[in-house]
Design brief:
single chain; four-stranded antiparallel β-sheet; mainly beta; about 170 residues; Glycoprotein, Type 4 Pilin; globular
């Protein structure tokens, strides 16, 4: 799996093996072990150091989380996003500002809103389980939930539309 991440103004090229045990960050090879992976936290061992990653929130390509109590926000692009960007296509279409899409494949655990309900940008609207972690998906815009396109327990694919919000204004 290849990614590009921007964190604290610096860009990183990341490649993670399919066994989730080795990563290449820029030109550095890193071996790691996921010690604990549950909805509350992720414990990651790199060498002799243990990192507690929690408060994870994914909204499109933006990932917010804390590492050992320090809060961070990263912009993450996967292989598809990078290819589209290389071909000159933008992955942040203004036409879809009111559409919430799945940031990754997973299973819908909970729908927190109903059709016709008013929501604020950033308000949690769905809980998506992906890679054994619960991810709180947030409204992309202020407005009214026009259509819910997924149901509880549905398995969804990356970029699949989950709900539409009719933006105000």
């Amino acid at each position: 799996m290849k990614f590009e991440s921007s964190l604290s103004g610096k860009s990183y090229q990341i490649e993670i093996d399919e066994n989730l045990s080795q990563a290449k960050i820029d030109q550095s090879d890193i071996e790691f072990e996921i010690v604990q992976n549950n909805p509350e936290k992720l414990l990651l061992r790199v060498g002799t150091k243990l990192y507690k990653v929690d408060n994870i929130s994914v909204n499109g390509g933006e990932v917010q989380f804390s590492v050992n109590g320090s809060f961070l926000t990263a912009q993450v692009k996967d292989e598809d996003d990078l290819l589209l960007e290389k071909l000159g296509f933008s992955t942040n279409s203004k036409a879809s500002v009111g559409t919430l899409t799945a940031p990754m494949p997973g299973k819908i655990l909970e729908i927190l809103v109903n059709e016709g309900e008013e929501v604020k940008a950033g308000q949690p609207v769905l809980i998506l389980e992906a890679m054994k972690m619960e991810n709180e998906l947030k409204a992309p815009a202020d407005g009214v939930v026009e259509k819910i396109l997924a149901s509880k327990n549905d398995n969804v694919e990356k970029k699949q539309p989950l709900l539409e919000i009719k933006p105000r204004g």
